[in-house]
Amino acid sequence: MSSWNPENDVDLLSGSEDEEEVSMKRDFHGREAILFVVDANLQTAGVERLLEALNIIRTAFVSGMLVNDKDLIGLIFANTKHSPPPLEASALDNIVMPDNCAVFLPLRQLTKPIVEHYLEFMGGVETQFADVYGLAEPDGCGRFDLMIRLCIEMLEKCGKKLNNAKIAYLTDVSTPHPSSSNHFQAALQKASDLEGKEFEFHVIPMVDDFDYEPFYKEFITLSRAIELDAFQVPDAQMLREILADRKLKQDFLRRCLGHFSFYLGPNLSMSVQYYNYFQRRAYPRKVQILRRDNSVVRTKRVITVQKQKDDGSQDIEHEYQIKVTDGWYTCSVGGKDLRISTELMNRVRNLHKPQMMLLGFKHRSSMPEVSYSKPSNFMYPDDQSIIGSKRLFRALWERCLTRDKIAICLFMCKRKSMPRYVALVPVEAPDNGEEKSYRSLLCGDGFKIVYLPEAKHIRHIDMQDWNNTENTAEDKKVEFFKKVIKKLRVDYQPNLINDPSLDALQANLLALSLDFSTDTKGLDNLLDTSQLDKRIEKLLPDYEMFAAEAEPPKKRAAKSASTGESAPKMAKIDDEHLKEYDFVKGLIKDKALTSCTATQLQFILQHHFDVTMPKSSTKAKMVAKIEELQN
Amino acid sequence: MASNKECLIIVLDVRTCAAEEVKLKSAKCVAEILKDKIVCDRKDYVSFVLVGSDTNEKKTDAASHPHVVPFGDPRLCSWQLLLDFFQFVNKTACEEGEWLNGLQAALDLQQTAASFRVARRRILLLFDFNDFPQDYEKFNEITDELLTENIELIVGTHNIAYVDNAETSQPQSIFNFSRKCGPDELKNQKHVLSLVPRCNATLCSFKEALHTVFKVTNRRPWVWNAKLSIGSKISISLQGIIAMKNQTPVKLVKVWAEKDEIVIRETRHFIKGTEVTPLPENLITGYMLGGTPVPYDEAVLESKDPHPPGLHFFGFIKRNAVPDEYFCGESLYLLVHQKQNQSAAVKLDALVRALVCSDRAILCWKIFSTKFNRPQMVVLLPRLADDTHPATLYMLEVSYTSQHHFWDFPALRTAKTECSKEQLDAIDQLIDSTDLECTLRDTQQPRPWAQNDLLPFDALPSIFEQNVMDVLERKVIHNNNKDDVALKDKNFTDVFWRVPEPLEEKSKRAAATVKKLFSLRYSRAWQEKLLAKEQAANGVTVKPEPAQKELPMPSDGMGLIEPCSDFKRVLASVCSLTNATERDARFQGLAADTRVVIITLLERKKHNIEQLGEIITLYRQSCIDFNTFLEYDKFAEELKKITLARNCSRFWQDVMVAKQLGPLVLGELTLDDELTLKAYYTIENWAENEAAEMEDIEM
């Protein structure tokens, strides 16, 4: 049995502040599901467009398998002529199949065979799609409302509890039906069904100049219960890119970390919610597997407390199991141990109410240039529990924005967390079209919650040992580095850089199970300096002007035992010598008996004086006895 | 290992002539210092000196300094020391006492502490410099000693105010001249003020004194040695120092069991809930790829050579290219050149200045060590050298794109959230009246706090730690058994949840105006919806009522005479079973009996419509509770067959159709469900002899 280090046990004191932890736990209440719907109209503009959509789904499948192994994924084709059944035809037994729709994959947790089946299908798409699925006749318009009904039914009857269900519709047609038709109205009405069932609907335009106006703007705002003028037109290309990562712009209503009240004064509060900008690094789930049949072995740590009987036997008086969170803290007061139960610590944590309170305002420039305590969050109003919050929030946000103010608040995000001082920095969604960078994905209108470091988190360092008037470099040396900088400039794009260890692991896993070879550059490639060297080749001779770095003298190493300096002062007494009475006499004469161990003293008493003293005798007593017997 | 412990001697004024405020605040101040050192498990040495003690009752060591009583040799902090201090400070006091004598005694104690080899020696003097004469004969001698011995002096008292120094615009402490001072008081104050230039003493208010004691600068911090390499040729030796870390210093000892008990920790293995004891060599680690476990032998698949530790350059990016929203990790590092490495210092200075000039930052891979070898993307932000710092780089970890969320927030500026001018004015008023800095900057009046800011960024308290300390203090003082008393003290929390006092009134008024202008209404609908959802989710499996005692199974099962009450009785007993499997099995038995009874009753010549209705309704309901939908659906079909065969149209209409006892439907009715049900209930080709059947029915 492997054992583990008690240091690793959950400690209430340091833990529990992590919101991620809580939101991760929430996921146990149900699985995430994402249902892809591919519009068969994509084939009309040439099979490439369809292939592009299928490729996005392929990467989403693969990244889905690698990251969130429990998620359910499904795939439907809409506006098809034929409705061939999926491989697992019985999955549709309880589902009413409308015309012009075809289920390729009912909602399933992805496995190796499913992905293989999909890859096989993709291989033949070019030649077979038109025959097998075709396009709805005459105009490629299947009933949109029936398609949505099918999606809802599939999500509801998937057999698993869902926590977060999304429908991603990949299309290039900006309206499913002519705006005057009855079908158009019927389609719009389905939006409220989605809202009621809390299923998210996303349209992923496969063309860049996609017009949301005729249909989707209204449909989406209805399905999310937001106002029509609050709709922000997303960038189509960006949507496709992030979908390949199996991500969608997340619905703000359902995925927040928590709701709380923000008090601007006594009796004046608004309801708000907060979000994180990124999640904990998600590695594939590590498991223990039995070699013989690949079955997954779950491990559980068990702490057992045992009391053995006092009588010296190995019998156990009592034994019980405890949880990692059991036990108590102790502190000693005048020799007595004071017991502090974890319950008391929990109550200390619960002294404060989860809320946010305004303490005052400062100018934006008063924020230290670089200060970091923990990742920031984002705050957005929530008009549900206090109606009118959104307007008050907007007023505060707008005034802070125009006047360059930040609000300083005390914030307790949820029960048992730590109250923290935060600065609310107003941020604004960039104007559409103006900036098409990753930053436009970063934020909408709202406040950024910046956690301020507590006084004790800041370490004050006296730099006098580093300060030296000769530290300052001459201007030509600065010029050298300016040239180097010019040569080695890069544009930061978050999606250019991936976690290399995760990449390597995923590539290995895919190679192992699906025989994929991914073209990930290993870190060794990333650390390869030859490219860099080449770009600054011409500058390098100038580098000579810097003096070679002399390693400062090493600190004196700890004294090793072999030099004898830390060796024990008194030589150990050898048991063999004790058998000689003369040696023992010498010890007695030199008053050196105290350097013997208790066992050795017992041995002397038995061997030379034939006396046995009780085991509990102290060394002093035994020495006295020996001396007495000698005399 | 560089030791970072200090020896702190606190000199307290206990003279009867000293203001009560000073005495109370000093004792509180000392308690806070001790609590902090205990809870954070610091290995500092502390002792106290009282000035103004009635030394007549204790004549031993009073000879050198009259009315001055030292506590004893400096010692480590413990709760016992805190309790002892509370007793010590309440010794009988007298009128007289000289603070310089107190300092002298503190210096003596520092001498005895020299053997502890502490890194820092400090004296905290908490004194009321009031209108009582003091002897300043030894003033120069003592201040010189402080200076030569490099002992830091912090002086705290109550009537301190701050103004901004005209030259440095740094806050400077002065005595508050709001009231008339006597000649002796002026003389005392003059000497105290001259402590600042004479021996670099810090003169401050009590609150600031506490900050100053806690704010320790470290000359020999822990460093992470690393080389920043740009390409293969350029490299700079750096040292990383933690500048900020989100970490609580509270250290409490965790205990798992009584002293005479043994704690055994082991890992157990389960396959689908069944415990197994595999040999370690039969287990292999792997990863879940969707639903498929993939064995993964790290030793074989991953390269064995660790990556070289250090900072590996990736590129120069625009300084603000990485948004601070993407910063992750727990700490902020400051990178400085390797100590005593002059060449590295010059290179770093050149690099930092070049970076600032071209408004760039560095993106690079951080590999902490060969042991912690996982590479992490970091951004290095330049910081120019100044009087206190050489040129440095801040190092922050950056999250990867696969972690990022993309939210879809609707715009805030919509017609619905449009605000009127009064509303915006009210918000402006709120901002102005709760301004933490501007109102102070305009005036040159002395202020009671040091910085030009009511909530300075570098002095935010750690609330949780303060709560832990206070609760523990209460527990220690009340000897362990009054958890509730300690926790009910609202002061523990209320002190933090309030606007700084000088702004309180103004901000309250402004908030009231805002409240008047914005209509805000609580809505319970949302919570109710959530609650209903939760209940629905939990309701199926968990019955709200507590588990009842198991009822004995009635020996007589279902009979034909009173089937309904029989059924209820047996069902109650079945429901009371706690073993789920047994309960289901018993229900199966009961259901089978019931079906036989119902069919028997139905096959009788005369139908008791009421009874049949009741028993079928009961059975149908129990099928919902026990989740045996299919069984009932089959039974419903059987009933229909019997009805058709025996032509019991009365039974069909009055029982099955009227009470809607058809097949069970899960959840909301869909169109298809409705069609199926309709088909079930409709029987079109009844046999002719309705009249004959009428006679069969017992009314």
TrEMBL record, chain A:
GO terms for biological process: DNA recombination; double-strand break repair via nonhomologous end joining; telomere maintenance. It comes from the Eukaryota. SMART domains: Ku78 (SM00559). Its main location: nucleus. Residues 551-570 are annotated as: Disordered. It holds the Pfam family Ku_N. It is found in: Nucleus. Signal peptide: none annotated. GO terms for molecular function: ATP binding; damaged DNA binding; DNA helicase activity; double-stranded DNA binding; hydrolase activity; telomeric DNA binding. The keyword Ribosomal protein does not apply. Residues 319-469 form the Ku domain. GO terms for cellular component: Ku70:Ku80 complex. Keywords: ATP-binding, DNA damage, DNA recombination, DNA repair, DNA-binding, Helicase, Hydrolase, Nucleotide-binding, Nucleus. Heterodimer of a 70 kDa and a 80 kDa subunit. PANTHER family: KU AUTOANTIGEN DNA HELICASE, X-RAY REPAIR CROSS-COMPLEMENTING PROTEIN 6. Belongs to the ku70 family. This is ATP-dependent DNA helicase 2 subunit 1. The gene is Dyak\GE26092.
UniProtKB/TrEMBL annotation, chain B:
GO terms for cellular component: Ku70:Ku80 complex. GO terms for molecular function: ATP binding; ATP hydrolysis activity; damaged DNA binding; DNA helicase activity; double-stranded DNA binding; telomeric DNA binding. It is found in: Nucleus. Keywords: ATP-binding, DNA damage, DNA recombination, DNA repair, DNA-binding, Helicase, Hydrolase, Nucleotide-binding, Nucleus. The lineage of its organism: Eukaryota, Metazoa, Ecdysozoa, Arthropoda, Hexapoda. Single-stranded DNA-dependent ATP-dependent helicase. One of its GO terms (biological process) is telomere maintenance. Its main location: nucleus. The keyword DNA repair applies. Residues 275-415 form the Ku domain. Belongs to the ku80 family. It is an enzyme of class 3 (hydrolase). InterPro entries: DNA_bd_Ku70/Ku80 (IPR006164), Ku80 (IPR024193), Ku_C_sf (IPR036494), Ku_N (IPR005161), Ku_PK_bind (IPR014893), SPOC-like_C_dom_sf (IPR016194), vWFA_dom_sf (IPR036465). This is ATP-dependent DNA helicase II subunit 2. CDD domains: KU80 (cd00873), vWFA (cd00198). It holds the Pfam family Ku_PK_bind. It catalyses: ATP + H2O = ADP + phosphate + H(+). The keyword DNA damage applies.
